[in-house]
Specification:
Number of strands: 25
Number of helices: 7
Structural class: alpha+beta
Distance between the termini: 32 Å
Length: 445
């Protein structure tokens, strides 16, 4: 259910980590918001601030341009725009943060897919003077496709509309209605002025009509984690470890980062795509044996049986194994300049496995203006979102993206030069009122 209320969750411990991304149209103030967050939360070193002050003075500005704290490329500073995804790491006494500041230009929309693909939350900025524009809708659609659990609508530049509550309320209502159609589970709308600092870290003294959290307060309180996808334990095998030394003559371990869920010594597991089964005889974490390992931990798993396991295989609980398939129905965000066409031969990278594949069909393309699915577009061009049918040369254990963000996602790659063509989400896309049941398919076996 979509809400516009403050988060009521308990304050998390300072050890928790929140990954979040910013997005918005051109000149909505994303970099300024990020700079304000870093500056007002005391996360900027003195020499960094001095460099920003010098650069701002050289450009004839009266005060420091906080956007320069994130726009690191020379071309970004010269043009006053964000081109690349800028990652920043900062912390408050309540929580640690990994922040991805993504570009606003349409031609860089693909960068948002990168920045938001692992995010727990996305902050979508809107210029209070312009309201919801096409790029706003595009970013909301990507956040919905990527199943980002929490969305913040930051209505920026409220100082330029005299801090008028009706302006904020109208934008919040329009965006929330659109996001609800996309299936976004939660929207928190916050009126801000990144330039003046209103409701970013400190509450605004000029918007007494707003009683919700500041941006930082919400970031500190919102639950972290990807939700339902963490239920399904998945370990993509990255490397097989066989020291064959005098100390470890029979050691055979399967190393990788746990994509989701947890594994326990003694648990029955299945190795996919072969379907062979065994039990976990040991788990090594940072060189020490442990009984349980959880999502995001890099571990080495040992099995009771000597199975043929190699890089690209997936270790899963025997009672919770996804079906293997060569036919994948998915929604993709096309990120390459070269169009994606039916019959195109590609490489499909799923987890740690890369296989040959062919695009068999492109049933529809999403029109962001009215959320309708335009049938038979013939091709997808840069920044398009559409449905595809892909057939792989080898069977893959693909989850539905709704069940697992890590093992339900994949990349389509140009086999000639290694360029990433599209980022895919297997199974159902977001549910819209204009989507027909026939276009609402999951991976088939």
């Amino acid at each position: 259910m979509t809400t516009l209320t403050t988060t009521t969750a308990e304050t998390p411990a300072a050890t928790t980590l929140l990954r979040f991304a910013t997005a918005g149209s051109v000149d909505d103030g994303k970099s300024t918001l990020v700079g304000r967050l870093l500056h007002d939360s005391k996360s900027v070193l003195a020499d960094q601030l001095e460099a920003v002050e010098r650069a701002s003075a050289a450009r004839g500005q009266d005060g420091p341009d906080l956007a320069l704290l994130t726009d690191g490329l020379r071309a970004e500073r010269e043009q006053g725009i964000t081109i690349d995804v800028a990652y920043r790491y900062f912390a408050t006494p309540r929580r640690r943060f990994v922040l991805a500041d993504t570009p606003g230009h349409v031609q860089y929309t693909r960068n948002m897919v990168t920045g938001a693909s692992t995010a727990d939350l996305t902050v979508i900025l809107v210029d209070a003077r312009n309201g919801v524009v096409e790029q706003t809708r595009r970013h909301a659609a990507i956040a919905a496709l990527l199943r980002v659990p929490h969305v913040v609508l930051a209505v920026n530049k409220m100082d330029l509309v005299d801090y008028a509550e009706p302006v904020f309320a109208a934008i919040a209502e329009e965006f929330t209605a659109y996001a609800t159609e996309l299936g976004v589970p939660e929207v928190t709308a916050i009126p801000i002025s990144a330039l003046a600092g209103d409701n970013v870290v400190e509450p605004s003294a000029t918007m007494g009509w707003y009683g919700g959290p500041t941006v930082l307060e919400h970031l500190e309180r919102v639950p972290a984690g990807h939700g339902p996808g963490d239920r399904h334990a998945r370990l993509p095998v990255q490397y097989v470890i066989r020291p064959q030394t005098a100390e470890h003559p029979d050691y055979r371990g399967y190393a990788g980062q746990i994509a989701a869920g947890s594994f326990r010594v003694g648990e029955a597991v299945t190795v996919l795509p072969s379907g062979r089964t065994s039990r976990i005889s040991g788990i090594d974490l940072l060189g020490r044996p442990v009984e349980v390992a959880r999502s995001a931990q890099s571990v080495t798993v040992l099995l009771e049986d000597d199975l043929d396991v190699s890089r690209g295989d997936l270790i899963v609980p025997s009672g919770d194994a996804p079906a293997t398939t060569r036919d994948i129905a998915a929604t993709v965000c096309h990120v390459a300049d070269m169009p994606l066409t039916v019959g195109r031969r590609v490489l499909l990278k799923h987890g740690t496995r890369t296989v040959k594949a062919v695009v068999q069909d492109i049933p529809s393309r999403l029109a962001l203006d009215d959320l309708s699915l335009r049938p038979r577009p013939g091709q997808l061009v840069a920044n398009d979102i559409g449905r595809v049918q892909v057939r792989t040369a080898e069977p893959l254990p693909v989850d539905s993206y709704a069940d697992s963000r890590r093992t339900g996602s994949f990349l389509l790659i140009d086999p000639d030069d290694g360029t990433t063509l599209a980022a895919g989400m297997a199974g159902e896309s977001f549910v819209t009122a204009r989507e027909s049941p026939a276009q609402h398919s999951a991976p088939s076996s």
